[in-house]
């Protein structure tokens, strides 16, 4: 078939395109702006990319159009698809019909940690010679691609609660029909899609309903939103993690770089690895239990963790210049900001931490989490906040309530200047954004290099 993908450069749609290509289809696609890193990966696969949504891209008509969830009515290409009656579908539905049948799907869901946990799980299976397929919404350092079909029935997928398409407002993960399901956590997010946490719980319960009785749901204890969701009805086996769970971790280093895995009081494995933070320890335990469900022993999973190289944009150290380290992190929710900074603080002790934050996600721009942002940064020594131009609210109130020194910026030059002035030996600069941040990462590293000289 000739498959044309509208909105191809997002991590999900780009990964889907590579799977369609691997299946033997001719794949083309377009996006508002064709941009790396996904555009580079797709071009290397021989996928023709078109910038913009000119209807001419649909001449001659493809056999099928897959429409990304960022597109809506009024988009020129979407209007032509509907007007001409061209066959179309959503990305999640295409996966359900053409990739996932016959697969043992291992789905990783939750508000936070999906990309890291899915990457950990895929790597555990790979390390155990199980050659899984996977689709991950990020770039894991242990694999050269973000998606592949694999050589066995096992398929790991990052199961996103965001909606499927303008014509299908169910969460993406409702389409995946997993046999093994991780629910990492559950908080209110995606305020552009959901009106309340109850709306999100409803979608998660749709997901729970699709897991077979012989399947397994892995979840932490003590999270009311998850407990309430499962109490609406759960027909599958469950495994609980955390302080009162069936499985838990015992930290042997405060930063989470060394820990034991316990079933009840019995030690099942010991892990030494490069990641830090309690949130990553929790991610690792969930992945280990999911791998265990398909036959990977805790000992083998622990050995895999020791060789896990991390995920790009998840506390990725992008520079180490004259004892000043710069990290790129995707955190865009107060909980993610807080756990990431707490993990770094546990690792570096009293070293200076400078947090540089762009609250850029749709939910952040709407101001939904504004009351929790100031305290999320309590483990930093200084916080430099950037006000995105399209925000619906002013960050000044966050600055006024900050428990640590904080400053607001509306342009990047001043922010970079002050970050350089604050930097010192044995210092850690954490840049947090779910976007490109106006090229700040590269500009700051470049200026640091010159500054040091």
Can you give me a brief rundown of this structure?
The chain is of the alpha/beta class. The chain contains 15 helices and 23 strands. The chain is globular, with a radius of gyration of 22 Å.
Structural features:
seven-stranded mixed beta sheet; about 450 residues; alpha/beta; globular; 23 strands; six-stranded mixed beta sheet
Gyration radius (Cα, Å) is 22 Å
Could you tell me the number of beta strands? Answer: 23
Tally of separate helices = 15
Report the span from N to C terminus.
56 Å
Q: Tell me the strand percentage band.
A: 15-25%
- Using the alpha-carbon principal axes, give the shape: globular
The helix/strand class is alpha/beta
Summarize the main sheet: 7 strands, mixed
Residue windows where pLDDT falls under 50 for at least 5 positions: none
Q: Give the mean pLDDT.
A: 92
What assembly state would you assign to the polypeptide chains in this entry? single chain
What is the helix content? 25-40%
Strand line-up across the major sheet: 8-7-9-6-12-13-14
């Amino acid at each position: 078939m000739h498959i044309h993908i509208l909105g191809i450069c997002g991590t999900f749609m780009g990964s889907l395109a590579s799977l369609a290509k691997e299946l033997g289809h001719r794949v083309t696609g377009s996006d508002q702006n064709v941009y790396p890193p996904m555009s580079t990966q797709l071009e290397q696969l021989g996928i023709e990319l078109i910038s913009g949504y000119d209807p001419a891209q649909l001449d001659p008509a493809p056999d099928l159009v897959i429409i990304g969830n960022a597109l809506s009515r009024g988009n020129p290409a979407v209007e032509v698809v509907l007007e001409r009656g061209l066959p179309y579908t959503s990305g999640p539905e295409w996966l359900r019909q053409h990739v996932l049948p016959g697969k043992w799907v291992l789905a990783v869901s939750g508000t936070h940690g999906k990309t890291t946990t899915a990457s950990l799980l895929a790597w555990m299976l790979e390390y155990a010679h199980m050659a899984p397929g996977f689709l991950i919404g990020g770039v894991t350092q242990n694999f050269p691609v973000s998606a592949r079909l694999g050589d066995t029935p096992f398929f790991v997928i990052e199961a996103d609660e965001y909606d499927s398409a303008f014509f299908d407002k169910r969460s993406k993960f409702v389409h995946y029909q997993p046999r093994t399901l991780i629910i990492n956590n559950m908080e209110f997010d995606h305020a552009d899609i959901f009106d309340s946490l109850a709306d999100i719980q409803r979608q998660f319960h749709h997901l729970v309903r699709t897991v077979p009785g012989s399947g397994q749901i892995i979840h932490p204890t003590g999270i009311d939103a998850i407990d309430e969701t499962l109490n609406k009805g759960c027909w599958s086996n469950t495994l609980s993690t955390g302080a009162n769970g069936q499985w838990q971790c015992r930290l042997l280093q405060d930063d989470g770089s060394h820990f034991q895995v316990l079933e009840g009081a019995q030690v099942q494995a010991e892990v030494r690895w490069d990641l830090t933070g309690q949130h990553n320890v929790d991610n690792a335990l969930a992945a280990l239990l999911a791998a265990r469900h398909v036959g990977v022993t805790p000992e083998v999973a622990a050995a895999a963790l020791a060789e896990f190289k991390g995920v790009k944009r998840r506390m990725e150290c992008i520079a180490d210049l004259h004892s000043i380290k710069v990290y790129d992190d995707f955190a865009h929710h107060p909980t993610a900001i807080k756990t990431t900074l707490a993990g770094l603080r546990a690792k570096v002790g009293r070293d200076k931490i400078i947090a540089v934050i762009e609250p850029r996600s749709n939910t952040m721009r709407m101001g939904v989490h504004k009351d929790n942002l100031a305290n999320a940064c309590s483990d930093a020594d200084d916080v430099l906040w950037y006000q995105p131009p399209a925000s619906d609210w002013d960050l000044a109130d966050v600055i006024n309530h900050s428990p640590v020194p904080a400053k607001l910026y509306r342009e990047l030059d001043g922010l970079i200047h002050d970050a350089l002035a604050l930097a010192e030996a044995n210092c850690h600069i954490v840049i947090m954004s779910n976007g490109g941040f106006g090229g700040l990462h590269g500009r700051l590293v470049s200026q640091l290099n010159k500054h040091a000289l």
